[in-house]
Amino acid sequence: MSKLGFRRTLMTVRMLRAQSPELLKLMLGQIFSSTGNGTVVTSFVVFVQRELNADNVDMVIIVLVGSMSACLGLLLLMPIVKRLHGKELYRMFMALKAVTLVWPVWLALGFTQKWEMFALVVIGGVLNPSLLPTIRSIFQQTCPHGYEASMFSLLGICTVAFVWIGSAVLAMFLSATGSMRWGILAQAAFTVVALWIFSSFDFKKAQEDRAKIESGEHEVDGVGEFDELRAESQDSSLTSRDSR
C-alpha cells in the first residue's frame, strides 16, 4: 500500500505540472506556509517557557484561551468563507496568510512581558484555524472532478510532511545563538516565500485548466496510469477483505 500511495503521489504531481500549474503553485506555497506557521505554533510553549519563564498555570491558561479563541474564530470566519467564491475567497486567504507573518516577528522582537503571550494566543487562535479550510475551499473550486481524492491527499502531504524542516532550522539557530528568538524569526522567511508563491496564483487560469481537463479538450498525462493505480487499490482492498 505504501508503494501504491507513493506512485499515486508521483502521478498527481506529474499531472499538476503538465496540466494545472496553478494548483501546483498552491501545493508549493502550502509547503512553505505550513513549515513556517507550523513551526511557530508547535514551538510556542517551549518558547514562552524559556523566554518568559511561563509556569504550569500559564500553560493551562494558554490551552484554554487558545481553544476558545479557535472555536470563536471558526464560528466567525467559516460562514464568511462558505459564501465567498473565486477571487474574493483568494483575497481573504491572502489577507489571513499575510497576518501570520506577524507571529514570528512579534515573538522574536517583542515578547518581553507575559501579557503578550496571551494576546498572541487570542489573535492567532482566531485567525490560524481558518487558514487550512480556506485553502481547501480554493482547491475545491479549482480541482478537476474525478481527481479530488488524489489532489486532497497531496495537499495533506504538503501540509504536514515538511514541518520538520522549520524545526531543524530553529534547532540550528538555537545551537548557534543559545536563544530561540533568531530561530523563530527565521520562520518568517518561509512565510515570505509562501506569500510570494501564493501571490502568483491565477484563480481564473486555474478554473480554465479545470474546465479543459473535465471537458477532455486535451489528453491528461498519466490518466491511464491513474486508472491502473485505482484498479490496483481496489484489488488490494478486495484481497485484504478476503484474507479476513
UniProtKB/TrEMBL annotation:
The protein's name: Major facilitator superfamily
Membrane topology: Multi-pass membrane protein
Record's GO cellular component terms: endomembrane system
Keywords tagged on the record: Membrane, Transmembrane, Transmembrane helix, Transport
Highest taxon of the lineage: Eukaryota
InterPro entries, A to Z: Atg22-like, ATG22/LtaA_families, MFS_trans_sf
Cellular compartments annotated: Endomembrane system
Family indicated by similarity: Belongs to the ATG22 family.
Transmembrane segments: 23-47, 59-81, 93-111, 117-139, 151-174, 180-198
Taxonomic lineage from the root: Eukaryota, Viridiplantae, Chlorophyta, Mamiellophyceae, Mamiellales
